[in-house]
Amino acid sequence: MNARVFHTVVVGAGPGGLIAAYRSDVPAPGLLLLDGGDDVEERIGALGSDSRGDVVTRGFGGAGLFSDGKLCLSPRIGSTVSHRFDPSRVSARQHAIDEVLRSGERADLHGGDAEAAENFEKRAKVAGLEYVHYPVRHVGTDQLPRMLSRLRTRLAARATVACRTTCIGIRPSGRSDFRWELELDGPGVRRVHAVNVVLAPGKVGASWLGDVGRELGLGRDDAQPKIGFRLEGAKEFLGPLLEIATDPKVIWSGPDGVEVRTHCVCYGGDVVAADYHGLTLVGGHATSAHAENRSNSAIIATAGRRLPLTADDARTLVAAINRRHGGLIGQRLGAFLPDTPLPTSQAVGEFVPSLPDAAPGDFTAEFPTAIVSALQTFLFRLASLCPGVLHPDNFLYGPAVERWASRFTVTDEMEAPGQPGLYLVGDGPGLTGGIIGAAETGWLAGDAITAQARR
Questions:
Q1: pLDDT tens digit string along 106-139?
Q2: Domain interval for residue 428
Q3: I want to staple 388 with a disulfide (CB 3.0 to 4.6 A). Which of 13, 74, 170, 348 is the partner?
Q4: Is 157 contained in some domain?
Q5: Rounded to two decimals, what is the model's pTM?
Q6: Do 347 and 370 belong together in one domain?
């Protein structure tokens, strides 16, 4: 089959790729946006009738825009590149991205009480914790399909969208008028030449991008993954945290580089299983109505110099747990913190667990000792701010892993140094950790491509 040509190809239709495509104003022969997962309507249908975990993590919208939809508007959260720019420029970009992504969908902005946030910050400091405050707009799992459908319609006017199509190879093109050649696997074209390529494969594509990086000799720093679980309890068990913000970020920094933090708090929501290229992990989501009688948060840790873990180590650990237990495991908090009198809170009642069929497990045996110790220490510190955390009937589900990806080196335009026309954006290259951060890197790449096309 003859190769087709495009001015720009965007690999991955998550937040980074979508915004890169949205901001790329390119001449003929146009723009191709591809993703290995389903298109919007297929994802919506599969979510209601199919048990495949990858419907949550792959497809148009990526993982973040088909799960919980938290838009965190802060230069301090979710990005390793925002610090390069003036905070006012970052704020303006993020608010513009917020408008583009929502595509008319209404969602309240939470976390506007600066005085309450400052008081909570002081309380956290007394407990040896850092509280990072930022405004969050929670769109909600129920609103995301409508939002994505509108965005899909807008992008179809400026790009060829090809879902169920993966990029299996990329190399410099032998043609003088195009820089890159891509080999694709999907129902349509199999080979493409392009002036520019934006690689935005998300976390599910981090391993593939690592292979591409080695083949092309791209600069990067090794990943430092965080490992942990989802802590689930009755709906109000995180109440003191959620009074301040909808996605509170509480961090403990211990000796020798140890760090533990909350991540992606889901009020009135569910813990869900998610497939990342054959590995089963836990995630969380909530609708805009927060209708469930339970809430959850990821608690993730790195043991720093006491136990330096690589991404391969994390994958091996997860694969072993999945293999031994047939997927995820669950454990009562009272069993994870044995021989310790646990305070209970009258404000925290019963709840129906999200995953009652999760295999019984023991995180103290499954996780390295240094990780277990860090997680246990953090839970006790967190309980000084939020006593309901230590209710013995709270539940743990895992494993949860964040920061799989090596951090690739990029310019301020998200271009790989020494590789003209090759842009890296989002979570896959380790540059971001969330919807807005990923989208912002896509914005920067798209603007750079537009500027280049107009020269």
A1: 888 888 788 988 999 999 999 999 999 888 888 8
A2: 4-101+143-221+407-454
A3: 348
A4: yes
A5: 0.82
A6: yes
